[in-house]
Amino acid sequence: MPPSTGKLVATKVKPTNLLADDIIIAVMGPTGAGKSRFIDIATQQAHTANVGHSLESCTSEVRAVRFQRTDGNGTRSYVIVDTPGFDDTNKPDTVILALIANWLKTTYKQAVHLAGIIYLHRISDNRMAGSPLKNLRMFAKLCGDDPLRNVILATTMWDRVDKSKGEERQRELEGKYWKDMRDHGSQTRRFGGSFDSAWNIIDAIPKKTIGILLLQEELVDLKRQLSETQAGIALYNQLQKLLAEHKETLRKLREEAVGNNDEQLTKALNAEYDTVQRKLQGTFEQVAGLKLSWIRRIALLFGRRSQITSNTRVG
Fold first, then answer.
1. Per-residue pLDDT tens for 153-178?
2. Is 294 a residue whose pLDDT tops 80?
3. Under CATH, which architecture does the 11-219 domain have?
4. At what angle do helices 93-109 and 230-258 cross, to 10 degrees?
5. Shortest CA distance to 158 belongs to which of 34, 55, 260, 278?
6. Residue 139 CA, distance from chain mean position
7. For the chain, domain boundaries
8. What confidence score (pLDDT) does residue 6 get?
9. CA-CA distance, 51 to 182, in Å (whole number)?
């Protein structure tokens, strides 16, 4: 795409104010992957100083900005959507999923579809574990298979890693963690931190709209609760695993504190115990929030039986 004429002017836009001719692109990925920075650079905004480079969350809400860009094909209206990552420092994962789900649900009901999704990943991460892996799994469950052809998997923070090491990690991502998405049409790119680099990624998105995301279909067409969706089930399973890990950590801390005669160490262990206990309680509350009531379980059971009956009935 040739350079646009003049500085871009971006304004915030609500999901209810999106237009049919808007080219809507969502930016997703773990906390600290550089989502806000990518958007600010792509839209030439001056408030990039507010964008952090640590693992502190910069985006706790779904934030969308609209701007006009002129190129060889004329002037087009873009909307880029900044989404919070899971393991947000300010909100629990269940709230993050609900925020993203509500935005997608609102736009789908208005017959407004995404043009594509840019998923960012820090190439500086020395291994795929914890938050990055959780975000990737949630992202896959949120999309489903068909929309993956309009997904760009982009690596960031190349300035923080040796080039050869970064390329080795890129190959591992493409050959292992991103393989299934690439098999379904997702492309990979590198974000170098410049305006041109950002637009090389945006321009790689196919012209055809992304269509319906799996999460949108489940919430609107199938009328499922968030906890019944594939993304909700994946989050529930991850929280259950985290719950078990917290309990095991508490058990070990309790044993170490009881068998230790060092007063200072015992005090430190007790402080750590209290911290893990708070995390345990927070995780437990998230798990409880995703559990289905017995009434809903029965309704789903009978609903599925009725569907099976109607599908097998000879008319």
1. 999 999 999 999 999 999 999 999 99
2. no
3. 3-Layer(aba) Sandwich (3.40)
4. 170
5. 34
6. 5
7. 11-219, 226-312
8. 59
9. 30
Answer whether 181's CB lies under 8 Å from 148's CB.
yes
Under DSSP, the state recorded for 48 is G
Cβ pair 184, 145 in contact under 8 A: yes
Q: How many CB atoms neighbour CB 195 within 10 A?
A: 14
Residues 191 and 201 sit within 8 Å (Cβ to Cβ): yes
Question: Can you tell me the distance from the alpha carbon of 277 to that of 235, in angstroms, rounded to the nearest whole number?
Answer: 21
- Which amino acid is located at 14 in the chain? K
Helix/strand/coil (H, E, C) string of 193-218? CCHHHHHHHHCCCCCCCCCCCHHHHH
Beta bridge partners of 53: none
Task: Count the Cβ atoms, other than its own, within 10 Å of residue 149.
Answer: 17
Q: What is the pTM of this model?
A: 0.83
Q: Which residue has the tokens 């990055």?
A: 132
Helix, strand, coil percentages (3-state) for the chain, rounded to 5, are: 55, 15, 35
> How far is 191 from 120, CA to CA, in rounded Å?
9
Q: Which two tokens stand for residue 163?
A: 């080039």
Smallest CA-to-CA distance from 210 within 121, 133, 118 is with 118
